[in-house]
Write a structure and sequence with these properties.
The chain is 28% helix and 9% strand. It is an alpha/beta fold. The protein has a domain at 62-175: Rossmann fold (3-Layer(aba) Sandwich), CATH 3.40.50. Strands 2-1-3-4 form a four-stranded parallel β-sheet, sandwiched between helices. The chain is extended and about 70 Å long. The chain starts with 40 loop residues before the first helix and ends in an 11-residue tail after the last strand.
């Protein structure tokens, strides 16, 4: 029993978040043992969602930038309605993900735009509404804020606003690199 004037409650543990007892902080990630990231080409190809041709096909090792360039190149090669545009895209883009695409597919399909994120996304919405497969690149994800109105109030609601005309912006892709340089808000 506590004496007169004392509360009689002794706090023995903290009631707020703290580190686990044996936490290993600020160590590099071992990607070879991380369950979500530890895949060989053979384990990745075992995915039942892949077609048998893909599962039995060949693979090659690529980094993220090479895989983005390869995906953009495949899209441009197989569909003439695909267009790629943004600030410095024809020069290879800020992270060089679109290197040589303008040379291979022409300046009509891979081209630079003025410095206007709202204009880039607005143009992409219009192109997608007319049946193109528009791939708009915003140089950094932090720069998308001026275009948020276009994305939220135009692109997301386009099919409802178009009424019975049947148009939509389903062919719209907006690429926004995030975290590539270690700073920024996103």
């Amino acid at each position: 029993m506590a004496g007169a004037g004392s509360i009689g409650y002794t706090q023995t543990h903290r009631l707020y978040s703290t580190l686990p007892p044996n936490a290993r902080l600020n160590i590099s990630t071992d990607y070879a043992t991380t369950p979500l990231l530890a895949h060989s080409s053979q384990s990745a190809l075992q995915n039942p969602e892949l077609s048998p041709e893909v599962r039995n096909g060949t693979t090659k090792r690529m980094n993220l930038f090479q895989s983005i360039n390869d995906a953009l190149s495949l899209s441009l090669a197989e569909d003439d309605s695909v267009i790629l545009f943004g600030e410095d895209v024809a020069f290879g883009g800020v992270f060089r993900c679109s290197m040589k695409l303008a040379e291979n597919y022409g300046s009509e399909r891979v081209f630079n735009t003025p410095l206007s994120e709202q204009g880039i996304v607005g143009f992409a919405i219009g192109a997608a509404a007319e049946g193109m497969k528009a791939v708009a690149e915003i140089q950094f994800a932090d720069y998308v804020y001026p275009a948020f109105d276009q994305l939220v109030n135009e692109a997301a609601k386009f099919r409802y606003r178009d009424g019975t005309e049947g148009r939509h912006v389903g062919g719209l892709t907006v690429r926004m690199p995030c975290g590539g340089v270690g700073h920024g808000a996103l």
